[in-house]
Every structure is written in C-alpha cells, then in structure tokens.
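Task card 7
Instruction: Convert sequence to structure tokens.
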Amino acid sequence: MKKNVLFTICVLFALRSISQYSRTQKQSMPTSGRFYSTAFSIGHYGFVGGGSNGSSDVYDFWKWDKNTNTWTQIANYPGIGSAGLIAFTINGIGYVGFGTSPSTVAKDLWAYDTTSGNWTPKATFPGTTARYACFTFVIGNNAYVGCGDPGAPPYLNDVWEYNSVSNKWTQKTSFPLSNDAGMVGFAIGKHGYAGTGGTGLGTDFNNFYEYDTASDTWTATAALPYIGSGLDHDVSFIIDNQGFVGTGRNTSLVSTREFWAYDTTTGTWGAIANLGGVSRNQGTSFSIGNCGYATTGMDSLNHPLNDLWQYGPLPTGLDERPTNVNIKIYPNPSNGILNFYYSGNIKKGEIKITDLVGRVNDFHEINGTNGRITINETTLPNGMYLYQLLDSDKLVSSGKFIIQK
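Output:
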C-alpha cells in the first residue's frame, strides 16, 4: 500500500531568473486607455502613442520621463495609419511607420527629433504589400522589419532592412514561418530574435528564431515555454542583454500576464514575475537603461488600458535575502487535488504551477501568515510538476509534487 507523506520545504534562496527583477507600477498615461499602440525610447524618455481607444483610432503621442515619472504630450503622429504601427530607435532618433487606419493599410515611415519636436517623412516602404503588426529589431544603424498583417489572412513572412544612414530599404531572407503577424522582436549584440504571433486562421506560434546579419540566415532557437496554444500580440524589451517577452493571447483569445526572459548564453527561457494589473494583449513596450516597460493593451473584456509597469533589478542583496516560509503539501502523490498549507510572513503571495521545463500551468493567490489553499489540477496528465511561491514577486519557496491518477 502506498503511503502519502506530508512534507515541509523551507527554501532560503531565490532563483535568479525569477527573483532578479521586480515589477513596479508607474504613472498611467493621462488619456483614456488604448490598444494596438506603439512605443520607442530615447535617453530617459519613453514615447507611447497611436493605436485605438475602442471607438476610434488615435494619433496622439506622449513622452514619459523616467526621472520624474510624468507624462507630456508631444506632436501628434502625422502618418496614415495609427493602429499596429512599427517603432524603433536608431542613434537617438525615433522612427514610427506602417500601421492601419479604417480606410487603408500604410507604408509610410516618419522620424521624430526630440530636439525640434518635429516629425520628418523618411523613405516609403518599397515592398509590394503594406502591413501592420510586424516585428522589429535594431542592429547598428539598421532596423529589421518583418512579417505582418496586410489587412486579412494570409499574413506575410518577408523581411526588410531599413538603413538609417542611406534612408533605403533592402529585402532580406524571409522569416521561416510562411505567414505570421502579431509577433515580437528584439536584438542582442549582432543577432536579432523574432517569434510568437499567429496566422489569423486559428494557429498561433511559440516558435522563436535567431537572425544572423552577417549570413542573412534564420536559425530556430528554444520556443517560448508558454503552456497555451501559441501566443500573439505580446510585447518584448531588453534588460541586461536578455530578451523579455510577455502578455498576449492564445488562439482561444485568452490573454495572459506571464513573462519570460531569454538568456542567449544558455539559449533557454526562464519565467519571471507576472506583469502587474490584468491579463492583456495588443499592448506595447520599451526599454530605458536597465529597466523594461510594458503599457496599454486590451484586457479580457476588451477594455482599453493605460497603465504603465516597470521591470527592473532588485536593490543589491534583496534577491538573496532569506525569507522563512513553510509549505506543506498533502497528499503527494495525489490525483490532482492538492492542499497547500503555508505559514510565515506572506504579504502578497502567489503559487505558480509549472511543468519540468518551466511552462506555466496555473496561478493561485494566497494571503495572510497562516492558511490553506486547495488546488484542483486534475486536468493535468500524470507526472512530476513544480510549484513556486512568490511573495511580492520574490521567490521564497519551491518544490515538487506528483500527479498519479
């Protein structure tokens, strides 16, 4: 006869991939919510604009000052489209373009000069098909723009290089997936990374690929460990030479607030603290220094959002500070019904359930210093799983359990 054992785990360390970064809510945009907006950063400023407020397209642009946590309106975007715009920064100049409006899909590109506060037209995209919801990343003086939605499926997979010095576009090797839109992209060193997105025909992707500028080739890398059926309309940013990807929705139009970090040294993804606020998709993001920012989007009830969240490193020493928290699980193994007994000084707790490769299956909030929460994971297949207890985004305890039905 098998005997279920009640056990206690008291973990006094934190995993770097989860605990190294904390999230903090910043001042919300001083406008109504929006989604399908875009963003770029210059110096200690983040620039956010365009998109839709749910009833109409919007062309206003706003500057957020990291030093003062305040917003200032700048000149409206003068381009044709406003939703699903691309944006990138090269040598202190912000570029915005493409996008869609109620009447057309655009090809124009504009540069914003922070000194003059003016927008200047740049070379129009020469590709056959206009588009929006493309991926972008910057390497040196060049921006790379790929895939996208031409207005209806099938989506696109061609990739183009924009040279900011010559103000010219050049077509490059196409993205490996035949049609994709609502993707994310980021660059680390001399390599670009792009992935996720969907076909618009019921298929979303977790796939990621690395782009080598020297050979103009794409190579498959580790897939994003999102447990759902692919992810589209997510966001990405860079912190400390790691690419961060999160939020978005799956093929069932279910949104998430999960986030992951990609380490190019190991070629692996690690889960980090969820984005604050609500689950969302069609948001936007930017980086300033060693912090990344996610903002705007649409929640699960299709409400436009205007909140701003910062991911940044914890103050020195805090990520390794012990926290005395006891977790007891009963029964283990179980048929999927688990009782978590917990004690300790838990201020804002969350239990995260993952499989052995880090794909997130479920989240459960807990509060108080002592208590019990019963978790139903009977839909999971038999096997070993991991749990992590986060308190105010800091990992304080972790362990394993087995489902055996």
